[in-house]
Amino acid sequence: xxxxxxxxxxxxxxxxxxxxxxxxxxxxxxxxxxxxxxxxxxxxxxxxxxxxxxxxxxxxxxxxxxxxxxxxxxxxxxxxxxxxxxxxxxxxxxxxxxxxxxxxxxxxxxxxxxxxxxxxxxxxxxxxxxxxxxxxxxxxxxxxxxxxxxxxxxxxxxxxxxxxxxxxxxxxxxxxxxxxxxxxxxxxxxxxxxxxxxxxxxxxxxxxxxxxxxxxxxxxxxxxxxxxxxxxxxxxxxx
Length: 239
What we know:
The chain is an alpha/beta fold. It is built from four helices and eleven strands.
């Protein structure tokens, strides 16, 4: 078994461009595909919440769980929230669970983006990517959060990205109860970011990394799978 090699090159610009392009669409999008020769397998999952004067309160939740079998595996998850109307709120959450059964390499991207351009408006995005590999391999992991307030007053944008890679060699999967617990965890993070607990949550992440929440997520997964953590990252950004 080859030892795992993990790298985190900065690909924020490319991923943010993809997310911004996705804002032209509405609703949660998810797709899984495999190359005809079985060499390339991928998962793309995103939630998009855009509030408008016609829909001042918008919430979008995306979830998918996929097993990837290709020699090369790509997983891209993202959450995007945008408000451009006064007094509006937008909340987007994404939970992607990926099982990588084999292959030589896996490329993992996870991005949370939130921005405001209004008065007295709130946006919150949470993207969580959980990857379970059966053997150590080359893994390139990128985890980013971006929150912006543009020409607005009394506006609050918050973005949080959590990514964790685990090694479980026996092919064990999370149970339905385990998945529900993870979904509840993601919703709790989003509620805290969008609600009165926002300042407490941001104070818990003084360096832009909420290690307490990340440790809770890791403990849930290790307890459910008996797995070993290979890599983990969290990034929390206020606008």
